Amino acid sequence: MPTRTAAQQRAQARAEYDAFLASCPSRQLLDRISDKWVALVLAALGSDGPGRPGHDRADAPPAMRYSELARRLTGISQKMLTQTLRSLERDGLVIRTVTPTVPVTVTYELTDLGLSLHRVVRGVKEWAEAHLDEVRASRERYDTARPPG
Amino acid sequence: MPTRTAAQQRAQARAEYDAFLASCPSRQLLDRISDKWVALVLAALGSDGPGRPGHDRADAPPAMRYSELARRLTGISQKMLTQTLRSLERDGLVIRTVTPTVPVTVTYELTDLGLSLHRVVRGVKEWAEAHLDEVRASRERYDTARPPG
DNA sequence: CAGGATCCCGCTAGATACTG
DNA sequence: CAGTATCTAGCGGGATCCTG
Questions:
Q1: Which tens digits make up the pLDDT trace of B42-59?
Q2: Alpha-carbon distance B62 to B48, whole Å?
Q3: What is the pTM of this model?
Q4: Residue A118 CA, nucleotide C17 C1', distance (Å)
Q5: Residues from chain B contacting residue A128 (CB–CB below 8 Å)
Q6: How many Å apart are CA B46 and CA B64, to the nearest integer?
Q7: How many CA atoms lie within 13 A of B128 on its CB side?
Q8: Residues B91, B27: contact at Cβ < 8 Å?
Q9: Side-by-side strand order, sheet with A105-110
Q10: Distance CA B67, CA B72 (A)
């Protein structure tokens, strides 16, 4: 009888990388994906169903145009949007498709790898939306307990 | 017959906040929790079981001392550790406990709210560790396809 | 339409020194 | 031990102008 379960062994076998260690390259990757714009872009590209009406296939991640993303992510600068999308493309999380119309049409869609990250990262956005009130209440308590001065 | 399922209605009812909107306060909260150090601190405080041996209760989130956290999160500066912990405390995600020994002992532990965030954020760290190889391969392909120059 | 290039400011993260 | 205080360099990120 083993001291570890099969699930634990699997988890450990996969974890040759440890983001707790500054020297581990997974630390830098964690830094990259722990980003507001990454979360929002992935959320936009991964959301299907009622939140995003009018897309073609119901089961596949919808492709979105650059301008669509820019409209969806209010307040993002074109620089940050482009930069984020390039980074995601380089990391294999999104596919960039250029259609030579005039003017040119560029669409972005999640890869399978990007979809897998979307599934975990969407939770962060949803958590923020769901628990904002509790966080605000806590801040108010904290700030009134020790007045800022 | 409703056009939306009960689950969809619930999700929408909760989502009075929308982080896609720059004006929505949940956007700022998303920005705060989309942070490398937040992810790592929560991961450290939330991890129980074989990853962190020697804690007292097996089911409760373990309390950790400041120095323990500093040792675990290699490369973090004391400034960032303190700052991150203060922010998490203010937001109601961790509890800071001061024990008047000499020298003083300070421990941190997750609140229920913090535990709920930990459950979603732990996935991000694990994703980075699990998929780093794929990301690296993608980067190499991308960079060789278009040489940096 | 979908960016590329450039300028520039602000704030943040790190290093260092000091303390109850 | 667990911080606080101060300084500074660096760069993240916005604004603006230009283009295939």
A1: 999 998 644 444 444 456
A2: 7
A3: 0.87
A4: 44
A5: 17, 19, 26, 29-30, 33
A6: 10
A7: 24
A8: no
A9: A64-65, A105-110, A94-99
A10: 9
